[in-house]
Structures are given as structure tokens and as C-alpha cells.
Amino acid sequence: MKRNLRRWGALGAAAVSLAGAMVVTGGATSAHADTRCSVNAIAINAGPGGEPKALAWGHSHKTGNHYVQSSKWSSFTGKYLWQWMADNNGGNDGDTADTYYGPSFCDNPAW
Fold first, then answer.
1. Which long-range contacts (CB under 8 A, 24 or more apart) does 4-13 make?
2. Which UniProt keyword terms apply here (predicted)?
3. What pLDDT score was predicted for residue 61?
4. pLDDT attached to residue 59
5. d(C-alpha 111, C-alpha 95), whole Å
6. Which of 13, 30, 78, 106 is most buried, most CB within 10 Å of its CB?
7. What residues have CB less than 8 Å from 110, skipping those under 6 apart?
8. Are 32 and 61 in contact (CB under 8 A)?
9. Could you report the per-residue pLDDT of 18-31, keeping only the tens digit for each?
């Protein structure tokens, strides 16, 4: 019985480890793609009942719109620091206030 429990424990630990690796890999891949160092003009806050509609520099994809709120030179890194926001548009209430999404260090300014 102890040997059987050890075997199941080892299998469970391996499954949890694999699942964790998949989440970390998936998160790193999608976060990298979502805060890439290229932008286009996009419409944000386009849904009814929310913040005023606007144009911003960012990108649109299946998970939503992300846009650069600021682009400043960082003498510490020798790159431009882009601060990304998530356009929380849609849902039952029309729009939710935009939230901070993450940083990127890029070779060029966003605009």
C-alpha cells in the first residue's frame, strides 16, 4: 500500500509540475506578445456607456486592446520604458475603467 501511495504521489507531483510549467510558459509567451515593442493606431473605449472614445497607440487581438499610456527614456536601462494599459471595454455594463497591463523596454519611443 505504501509503495502504491508513493507511486501516486510521484505521478501527482509530476502532473502539478507539468501544469505549472505550462501556465508559466503560456503566460510568458502571451505577455511577451501583448507588450511587444510595436504599435498601431487603435480605437479604445469604443463601447457604449463608458469612458470617452479615443484613438491610442497599441494593438488589438483576441484578448482585447492594449495601448501605451506613456513612453519615456530610461537612463538606467538605456531603453524606452513603455507603460501598457488594458482597454477594459465591453461586458454587461458597457465599459470598465482601463487598468495597468505591464511594462516593456524598447529600443524606440512609442510615438
1. none
2. Signal
3. 81
4. 93
5. 26
6. 106
7. 39, 57, 68, 71, 80, 82
8. no
9. 333 333 333 333 44
Number of domains the chain is built from: 1
Region class of 42: left (phi > 0), else alpha (psi between -120 and 50), else beta: beta
Domain that holds residue 90: 2-106
- The CA radius of gyration of the chain, in Å to the nearest whole number, is 20
Does residue 72 sit within a domain?
Answer: yes
Asked if 103 and 83 touch (Cβ cutoff 8 Å), the reply is yes
